[in-house]
């Protein structure tokens, strides 16, 4: 079991959350200028580090708000 600290509701079980992927992925500045390969890279390619990783989470069974946190992908410890 992993506890995730919701900034509004406090620590809750991971079953109350949905994973939203890597945080900080910026929308392309000029999306019309992207090739299919560049679009695919934007939509589907994400970092997969071993260690601290900044992620987006939604408290879907609680306040339904989105937030970012830093989780160690090896230990599942929430670092920030």
TrEMBL record:
**What residue ranges carry the coiled-coil annotation?**
none
What is one process in the GO biological process aspect for this record? tetrahydrofolate metabolic process
Q: Where does the UniProt annotation place the signal sequence?
A: none
| Pfam families referenced in this protein's UniProt entry, alphabetically | SoxD
- Give the molecular function GO annotations: sarcosine oxidase activity
Q: Show the InterPro entries listed in the entry.
A: SoxD (IPR006279), SoxD_sf (IPR038561)
Q: Which NCBIfam families match?
A: soxD
Name assigned to this protein: Heterotetrameric sarcosine oxidase delta subunit
Write down the species: Actinoplanes lobatus
């Amino acid at each position: 079991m992993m506890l995730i600290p919701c900034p509004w509701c406090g620590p809750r079980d991971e079953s109350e959350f949905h994973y939203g992927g890597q945080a900080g992925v910026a929308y392309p500045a000029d999306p019309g200028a992207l090739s299919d390969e560049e679009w695919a890279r934007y939509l589907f390619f994400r970092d997969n580090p071993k260690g601290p990783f900044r992620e987006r989470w939604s408290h879907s069974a609680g306040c339904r708000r989105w937030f970012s946190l830093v989780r160690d992908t090896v230990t599942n410890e929430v670092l920030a």
